[in-house]
Specification:
single chain, alpha/beta, Rossmann fold, 8 strands
Length: about 350
Amino acid sequence: MTFPVTEHTVKSARHTTGYLACGAEDAPLLVFVHGWPELSLSWRHQLPAFAALGFRCVAPDMRGYGRSNTYTRHADFAQEEIVADMLELLAALGRDKAVWIGHDWGSPVVWNIAAIHPDKVVGVASLCVPYLSQGFTLETVVPLVDRALYPEAEYPAGQWDYQVFYEESFDKVHPVLEANVRNTVKALFRKGNPALVGKPSRNAVVRRQGGWFGGGACPDLPRDSDVITEQDLDAYTAALTRNGFFGPDAWYMNHKANGAYAKRAQNGGKLAMPVLFLHGAYDTTCETMTSRLAEPMRRDCADLTEVVVKSGHWMAQEKPVEVNAALAKWLAVRLPAYWR
């Protein structure tokens, strides 16, 4: 049975969230949480597939994106606020809990829900970004950098250098990305390149080069048709043009607050529910194949399944069949009672 993907809105006194939904309204709930600088649209290959398998699938536009509210202060994009948006969405859907699936910045959101609100979680899955019980902060990730690839003297922050650039030079970031949004989208959404594995990420030299694209304009690259269609490109461009990059970029500006928020985790930050982690074999920023980035997750997740997907960072869009297969197998094996 095929289900249409439909648009909806949840409004509360504090926030408005636009979301896509697919599947029978009373079916078990999967919530798909996108990252930077994406949209609910980023889960277009997952929503109808899992609706057909018997789930109610919901993908929100996150705070700062698409049809959801954006704000003017960095603090408005702290994890605590974003998790509150998701709990409001869950309540508006008339549900007590869900399986939460995140990617990129959506991953810290679903990890925080699992750690701080475990009663709202049946299971949790993440693409590319592993669980860090102390929070996804510079203070947590920099000590896990692969120093064989990023010697400290040359690359003090390793591949996370770009996040330091945000902190030091925030006002130089979003104007460059906004100058030609279409070019920015084409430059960002590109498939993984196995030839770049084992080499320093371009994200490791952003400060040295004076910003993204060497501090100048974004180059006009051809669209990567293995990741996005022309229609997808139009949708991303329109949404990011309308809302701008201040909100999406401000997610990076709350390391201290997000670290403090992570301390509110239940069970000492240990996750008891079934967890799925998908490694991007060719993701050179969230590099989990040879670095120690995934080690804390293995220590803190009692029921962990790991799968390697031969993709770059935009995994759900580049390798949807492999991602869907891994998610479906995990749901069937680890959460059989949920999949009725």
